[in-house]
Write a structure and sequence with these properties.
With 247 residues, the chain is α/β, with parallel strands linked by helices. The chain has a single domain, classed as 3-Layer(aba) Sandwich (Rossmann fold). Helices cover 46% and strands 13% of the residues. The chain has eight helices and seven strands, in the order βαβαβαβαβαβαααβ. A seven-stranded parallel beta sheet has the order 3-2-1-4-5-6-7, with helices on both faces. The protein binds NADP nicotinamide-adenine-dinucleotide phosphate.
Length: 247
């Protein structure tokens, strides 16, 4: 399938490692001019250089940083046709564990980042009457994951925001979707399961019998960005080796 994406401009946040990096690599392979962002500068610059992308460090949990990131992106690469909304996940904890400050911090990182990035990027997409927005969420939007209340609640909110946006933007040729990874082989999964035996037990529950590769999650995101995916909007594409299929 021809993606039709050659020459488009993409902004990918959380792009220095894991799933975000794989999406940046996948888009670059389709001829997209990619702007990659994350907080730690050295790693970001190193990964961006490997694929000829532009690196602009920023912390997406801060409104001012998003304002600077999107302004610099437009000035140095052009107004993005494609926005990939991704970052690290919020810390683990049971339903009543996080205090108000933890809820607010997680909301800034996961929900408000999505809203602020959309606000900044949509006017240009509307002008060109073409755009793709993809949020990286989690299977927790279908089935809450024990001890991850911040992720469970806030990714559900991101999904509802994306669906609301999708109907408003459809007349302008802009699609808004999510990819929902199950357990994927990145640094994040090893932070969540520091004990290798616990990770092994979790993997044993995945019908496919293994973790997803970041590139497999990226393939779903790149497809949703493609020109032929123009009629797919407001959807969540789950990449989990069957984990949610038997629930
Ligand atoms: N891996 C899984 O099994 C899995 C499953 C379901 C959902 N997810 C979700 O998918 C997303 C990506 O996961 P991953 O496994 O690829 O995570 P990862 O390997 O930890 O990578 C996270 C990326 O986001 C960047 N980042 C973190 N906080 C940021 C911030 N405040 N501002 C800007 N960039 C930030 C990180 O770089 P810096 O630290 O340098 O900023 C890094 O580039 C996460 O939201 C995660 O919760 C992952």
């Amino acid at each position: 399938m021809e993606s039709g994406l050659s020459g488009k401009i993409a902004l990918v946040t959380g792009a220095s490692k894991g799933i975000g990096l794989a999406i940046a690599q996948g888009l670059a392979a389709e001829g997209v001019r990619v702007v990659m962002s994350a907080r730690a500068e050295a790693r970001l610059h190193e990964e961006a250089a490997k694929i000829g992308a532009l690196a602009i460090p920023a912390d997406v949990s801060q409104a001012g940083e998003i304002e600077r990131l999107t302004r610099e992106t437009a000035a140095r690469a052009g107004s993005p046709d494609i926005l990939i909304v991704n970052a690290g996940g919020p810390p683990p904890g049971g339903a009543l564990a996080p205090d108000d400050a933890a809820w607010m911090a997680a909301a800034e990182l996961t929900l408000l980042s999505a809203i602020r990035l959309a606000r900044a990027c949509i006017p240009g997409m509307r002008q060109r009457r073409w755009g793709r927005i993809v949020h990286v969420t989690s299977t927790s939007v279908l089935v809450p994951i024990p001890n991850l209340v911040l992720s469970n609640a806030l990714r559900a909110a991101v999904t509802a925001f994306a669906k609301t946006l999708s109907t408003e933007l459809a007349p302008d040729g802009i699609t808004v979707n999510s990819v929902a990874p199950g357990a994927t082989d990145t640094e994040r999964i090893r932070q969540l399961y520091p004990d290798p035996k616990a990770l092994e037990a979790a993997v044993a529950k995945i019908p496919a019998g293994r973790l997803a590769a970041p590139s497999e999650v990226a393939a779903a995101a790149v497809f949703l960005c493609s020109v032929p995916a123009a009629m797919i909007t407001g959807q969540t594409l789950v990449v989990d080796g069957g984990s949610t299929g038997r629930i």
